[in-house]
Amino acid sequence: HYSLLDSVIKVEEGVKHCLANGISSLAITDHGSMGGIVNFSDICEKNKLPFIVGCEAYISVGEHNSKDFLEVDSWGDEGSKRKTNYHLTLLAKNLEGYLNLCRMSYIAHTEGFYYKPRVSFGTLAKHSKGLIALSGCLGGMLASAARDEDPIKATREVAQQHKDIFDEDYYLELQSHNIPAQINLNKHCIALSKELD
């Protein structure tokens, strides 16, 4: 419930539900924030439940302190409009990654905040050590590229751009929501995974 206006899950209730249903570990990835991590980690530790901390970051196209911003709906039906920031799921795999997440969160809120707390690709590259990146949901850059005039070329370029930053710690994310745009994106991700390893 730290992803304001995005989530209705309360941390304690979520952990209890997972424990009751045999889920053996959890991750937290609030939108543009790390506000839920302390509460989440305390509750998981109390319940002896392994956990991963992360953030669904907003990555800006261009400099993160630019005031150029276009909000579109979460399904990406923006027609001819172009987004200027995208979701990218980041997970800390160690202490260095956690500290880099903290640095980027600070930069996003103090330098990059314009409707959303954003970081640039330059900031992402500078603070990528110890992080795992997932290509993201339908609000991600890869999903946007899949709707391009040449989706194969566009998705390849986006995936390679992320892989250049994260190397073997970049993963193409598959989600099963029975949404046509997601089904299309999954096909591109499967093809890209074979091509780009």
Description:
- This protein has 197 residues and is of the alpha/beta class.
- 41% of the residues lie in helices and 16% in strands.
- The protein contains 7 helices and 6 strands, in the order αβαββαβαβααβα.
- It has helices at 11-20, 37-46, 95-110, 121-126, 141-146, 151-166, 180-196, and strands at residues 26-31, 51-60, 85-92, 118-119, 131-134, 170-171.
- Strands 1, 2, 3, 4, 5 and 6 form a 6-stranded mixed sheet that branches.
- It is globular.
Walk me through the topology:
Layout: H1 11-20, E1 26-31, H2 37-46, E2 51-60, E3 85-92, H3 95-110, E4 118-119, H4 121-126, E5 131-134, H5 141-146, H6 151-166, E6 170-171, H7 180-196
Parallel strand pairs: 1-2, 2-4, 5-6
Antiparallel strand pairs: 2-3, 3-5
Helix pairs in contact: 6-7
Structural class: alpha/beta
Low-confidence stretches: 72-80
Helix content: 40-55%
**Major sheet characteristics:** 6 strands, mixed
Distance between the termini: 35 Å
The sequence of SSEs as H and E is HEHEEHEHEHHEH
Average pLDDT score: 88
* Percent of residues in β-strands: 15-25%
Number of strands: 6
Count the DSSP helices.
7
Radius of gyration, in Å, reads 17 Å
Shape: globular
Oligomer: single chain
